[in-house]
Structures are given as structure tokens and as C-alpha cells.
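Holo model, adenosine-5'-triphosphate. Inputs:
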Amino acid sequence: MEHFKTLREFFIEHKKRYILGIIWLIIVDILQLIFPQILRRITDLLESNNLSLNGLLKYSLLIVLTGLGIALGRYFWRIYIQTTARKLEYYLRNRLFSHLQSLSTNYFNTHKTGDLMAHATNDINAVRMALGIGVVMVTDSIFITISALIMMVKTTNLTLSIIALFPLPFLAYGVQKMGKTIHNRFKDVQESFSDLSDRAQENFAGIRVVKSFVQENEEIKKFTEVNDRNFNKNMKLIKISGMLRPLIQFISALSFLIVIWYGGLLVIQNEISLGDFVAFNSYLSLLVWPMMAIGWVINILQRGAASMSRINDILFETPEVTDCKDCIIEKKDINGSIEFKDVSFKYPNSDEYALKNINIQVPKGTTLGIVGRTGSGKTTLVNLLLRLYDIDKGQILIDNLPLKKLPLKTIRENVGYVAQDNFLFSNTVAENIAFSFENKIDESKIYESAKIAEVYDNIIEFPDGFNTSLGERGVTMSGGQRQRTALARAIIKKPNILILDDSLSAVDTQTEEKILKNLKDFIIDRTNIIIAHRISTIKNADHIVVLDKGKIVESGTHNELVKNNGLYNNIYQKQLLEEKIQSI
Ligand SMILES: Nc1ncnc2c1ncn2[C@@H]1O[C@H](COP(=O)(O)OP(=O)(O)OP(=O)(O)O)[C@@H](O)[C@H]1O
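Output:
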């Protein structure tokens, strides 16, 4: 129960509906307890030949009314409790999703998407079951058990009740033991299901790689392995949970056997009437349900608790990067000057420095070019500027203010970032470009940014132009088109700081030239950071830094660096040679 504390707020808000549901449930139970008394009366009257037509009609009407009451009551408790359980599912799903959105990038580096999907589906379902039907079963079982026992003793006698209920403790013990095993096996099933969804998810996301490396059969084999594991875990669960019900039925049948023998004897000896015997049997039948429910309830509550504890693990996870308490909240706009002061940084799960003693100044309205071999720390530099990670040593300043003093929202809203992994959503092209706007924006702005990014002509050739839907990860677009659409998505924000992380790598040099020409006016008043492998992309930058193994090894303008005859010139000469060879 401890695990469900997280939902306190929800319960407080919805307690009225839960209480009303439970009241209706108890009304149904009371009506069910009246039923055997009607049967008892009819049987006794029949036995003594005292049942008149009027009496028969009276009891028939009573039976119909009780039945109707039970039906109505069941409808209402379902409405109150089951709909509240669905509301809980909705509430929990939204809370989980919002919380996941608040977590830092590193959380998603260290947790599998498949696991997160399993929490959002299976675990939330298990919690809904526990707090919906589970609550109903607990209330129902407790109420019916106590009141049916009282009615049994009152209707017949204590000895018969005690003897008939003798097998019950064995049942409770058996169910409790099995419940534990069921719980453990259910956990295994959840885990293997999460591996299964993870495998499928990863395969679909990387389907192009799988196909290009002709790995379909290998992938099917790997999927079958996880599927087998999931199947076997399910089989193990079914074997034990399948035993639960027959066990309950067998033990309850023993109770009936006792009643027939001992109760029958009491009738013959005239200790109890035939009506008492019939009523006692009906109460015993009523007791069978809570006996069975004990098993299910334990099962459902344990599953719910296990799932809630897994969900809590996520909900209690605090973001690694958070807004500081003394943030300058009123600062909504950024002017644009950037400074890295002796910055060093290691990724959370790494011992190596990704960046070491970085000193860079980017005055407002200027462009910084960053080049360097792959893995030299270029993207890391940008990650730190966006505060996707916090730095270990040194300081990063924007507008002469330490990054930590600025609200995260201010930093990210003022930056137009074109990431290397230009992810597009399964929406229309227009929606992808206008992604950062909550409300609908003027179409002309979308067209304008697409024109600057040199993708307008491609988009209007799509079947529905800007309203063309993109498949997952924008598969209908070419790599270059995707890059340019992502560029348009950043341009439309008219950000004070524009960051392009290898954003023109998939376009040819001619298109690149056109884009750079279009960007010339756009970048004038902004602070720009352009990361590139191709020197042609950054050669006009006001200042260029060359990174190698996390350190700045050279810096200056293009001409200065060429003269320097170091790593930059080396890369440049190679690229010039490549261009020459290609043009032959
Ligand atoms: N999330 C991470 N966790 C641990 N190490 C990381 C992580 N991301 C990057 N690294 C490591 O940090 C170093 C710098 O990586 P970074 O992505 O900044 O290089 P890059 O210069 O942008 O490379 P490329 O040109 O290939 O994009 C690399 O050694 C890389 O393996």
C-alpha cells in the first residue's frame, strides 16, 4: 500500500466517487444477503403446505425487486469505481509523460525506450486494475464474508457454521503462498515483455540499417529468442495462476460436502428446518466468491503494487539539470554574447574528459565556426551551451551571466538549434517547421523559412505540399531534405542564437552555397555557432576554433588558420584535393 501514496492527491480529489461506488457495492451485497432469506421462507412454507397463490406472488415480486436492485446497484458501482479507475489511468499516464519530459537527456541515454513504453502501458494497466476492480473485490470480500458468516450462524447454528468453514484457513494459506509465486513470475513476465518491446522498437527505428545490411533473418532470429523468453515466462505464470482457481473450487466443494452430510443430519433430526438448510447453502455459495476473490485480489493488488513501485522509480527520479533557485526569472530575452571560460567536462558515465580547458568568446552578432575530427567534442560544446548537461569545471556565460542563473526556458527558447540527428515528427511538413509555436502561425512565415533553408521547392512538389504527412522519422524525405526542414524549423524561431551542428552535411556543395547565401542576411544580428566537417561551411565565420580530443588546438580566421599550416590547413587541403578529384 506504501507504493500508492504517490496517488494521494488523486484519491483526495476523487474520494466522493470512490465512497459512492462502495456504498452501492454494499447495497448490492445486502440485497444478495436477503435473497437466501426469501428462499428459506418459501421452502419452509412449501414444506408445511402453507404457500398460497398470494404468498407465491408476493415472494415472486420480492425476488424480482431484489434482482432489479442488485442489477441497478451493480451498474452504479461500476459507473463510480470503474470510471474513476479509468480517470486514474489517464491522470497517471499524463503525470508520467510530463515527468519524463522534465528529465534530463542523460536519463534517456541510460534507460531503454522499450522499458519506458512498458511502464506507460502494462504497469499503468496493472495499477488501474488494482485500484478499480481490486478495491471492489477487497470491499466485497470483507463485507460478504463477515455478513454471510453472521447470517449462517443466525440461520442455523454455530456448530454447522464452524464445521462447514473448517477448510477455509487451508484455502487462505494456499492462496497466500501461491500469490507470492504468482507475483514473482508476473514480474519476470513484465521484464521479458519490456525486452520484447525494446527489441521491436529498436528494429523498426533502424529498419533501413537492417535492410541495407541484409540482417532481416538475423533480426528475426534475435526477436524470436526474446519472444520465446517472453512466451516461456508467460507459460510459467499460467501454470501457477491456472492452479489457483481449481484449488479454490476443490476446497469450497469440501465445504459443501460437509454441509450436505452434517446439515442433512440436522434436518433429519429436526434441529434445523429444510428452509434453514437451503438458506445455509445459499450463504455458503455466497462465501465461495470471496474465497475465490482472495486469490485474485492478492494477485491484482500485488501486481498493482509492483507496477506502482516501478512507476514510482521514474516519478521520484529528479532531473540532473534543473533551474536554480536564484534564477533571474524575469530574463526572457537573450542578447546573444557567449563565453566559455576554462570549461572542462566529462559525461556522467565516462571517465574521460570530452572537453578540456575550453576558452571561447563569441560576441553578439558574430559567427563562430567549429571544426575538428569526429569525436573531438564539437556537439558536446553545444550540449553544454543548451544546458543538456551541467559542467564540471569552468563557467559558461551568456550575456555575461552564468548559464545557471538563466532559466532553462529562456536559454532554450532563445536558441535555434539544428541537431545532427534531425528528428522529424510524424506530422505534416508545416507542423514540423512550426514545431516551436503553440498556436497556428501565418503560413507565409513557414514558406519564408523553408525558402531560406532551400527546401521550399522540394516541399511544394510533395503530393500535399506543406500539408504532406511524414512517416516516422520523416522517411518519405531524403536525408538532405530532412536536414533542410530541420534548418527551417530553427530559422522560423528567429532565434538570437543560432546553432547548426553539422546541419549541411547531407546537401551537395552547390545547395550548401545557396543556403549560406540565403543565411547571410538572416545571421547578421544574431550570434551563430556553426559546426561543420566541411571547411567551405565555416570559412567565412568571424572566428574559427579547431578541436582535437576535447581541446582547442588552433583558433583564428580562415586565412590565419590556413597560414598557420596546422590541423585546419591539413583538413582544408585534403578537402580541396577531394573537390578537385570529384570535378575531374
Ligand atoms: N552521452 C554520452 N555519454 C558518454 N560519452 C559521450 C556521450 N556523447 C558523446 N560522448 C563522447 O564524447 C566525445 C565527444 O563527442 P561529441 O559528440 O561531442 O563529438 P563530435 O566532435 O561532435 O563528433 P562528430 O563530429 O562525430 O559529431 C566522444 O568521445 C564521445 O564518444
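The two ends are 75 Å apart (CA to CA). The longest helix spans residues 216-268.
Archived with the compound record.
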